[in-house]
Amino acid sequence: MVGISLATTVPGANVLLTDLGEAQEIVERNISLARFAKGASVTFQELNWDEALPAPLRNESSALDLVVAADCTYNPDSRYSIPLLH
Q1: Where are the beta strands (DSSP E) in 20-64?
Q2: Which among 15, 48, 50, 79 is placed 20 to 30 Å from 37, CA to CA?
Q3: Per-residue pLDDT reduced to its tens digit, 27-53
């Protein structure tokens, strides 16, 4: 919901939402119901913190301007998989 909220308020935002595959249906439903700011877009990509980052997220040409983590502390099984940023 945080990423969708950003896309509804920030014109031109290009938001990539990530979550486990089992969340994809509800995320895509929420995306379809939202009204985005002018020029903003939202897409979903499956991401499992216990696996390597998908190639599109490792590519330098797809550098991210902002990373927002929300609800990541609710899954106690994932807390040790979160890489530290230096």
Answers
A1: 41-46
A2: 48
A3: 999 999 999 999 999 999 998 878 888
